[in-house]
From TrEMBL:
<keyword id="KW-0812">Transmembrane</keyword>
<feature type="domain" description="FHA">
    <location>
        <begin position="70"/>
        <end position="119"/>
    </location>
</feature>
<protein>
    <submittedName>
        <fullName>FHA domain-containing protein</fullName>
    </submittedName>
</protein>
<keyword id="KW-1133">Transmembrane helix</keyword>
<dbReference type="Pfam" id="PF00498">
    <property type="entry name" value="FHA"/>
</dbReference>
<dbReference type="InterPro" id="IPR050923">
    <property type="entry name" value="Cell_Proc_Reg/RNA_Proc"/>
</dbReference>
<keyword id="KW-0472">Membrane</keyword>
<feature type="transmembrane region" description="Helical">
    <location>
        <begin position="12"/>
        <end position="29"/>
    </location>
</feature>
<dbReference type="InterPro" id="IPR000253">
    <property type="entry name" value="FHA_dom"/>
</dbReference>
<dbReference type="InterPro" id="IPR008984">
    <property type="entry name" value="SMAD_FHA_dom_sf"/>
</dbReference>
Length: 145
């Protein structure tokens, strides 16, 4: 009798492990599927946050669409508001001009970084550029046709 019960528990335990593995694989598949949909379905230029959003002490969107003049800073009036103590109230601005986007640091205390180098002047953004502001890392994506 004891052997029969132990066999039943063994098979139930194995079944639970398989269901757990299948659910994890399903979640990974859905996560990858939605990532590809979001990035390919946006026909615009945007900044995608590289940081894991769940590790931040403040709320941020996954991506920010760029149009016209976009201000970045700690201020609530900024187009992209970052509640990070390392970000100045008016930290940087991205301006669209002649179908290109240009990044300018607004004399921020901790600086703005493009591909690891401090931005000293107005600089044109290229697809795939990495933008660092405070603790936040962005990737500039230009999906315009």
């Amino acid at each position: 009798m004891f052997e029969l019960i132990s066999q039943i528990f063994k098979y139930i335990f194995i079944l639970i492990i398989y269901l757990f593995i299948i659910s994890i694989l399903r979640l990974m598949y859905l996560d990858i599927k939605t990532m590809n949909k979001k990035s390919s379905s946006i026909d615009a230029a945007y900044l995608k946050v590289v940081n894991r959003l769940d590790t931040l002490d403040f709320k941020m969107q996954e991506y920010y669409i760029l149009k016209g003049k976009v201000t970045i800073g700690r201020s609530s009036r900024a187009s992209i508001s970052i509640r990070d103590n390392f970000v100045s109230k008016n930290h940087a601005v991205i301006t669209e001009s002649k179908n290109s986007f240009f990044l300018e640091d607004l004399d921020s205390a901790n600086g703005t970084f493009l591909n690891g180098e401090k931005v000293e002047d107005i600089i044109e953004l290229k697809n795939g550029d990495r933008l660092g502001i405070g603790l936040i890392q962005f990737i500039f994506v230009d999906n315009r046709g």
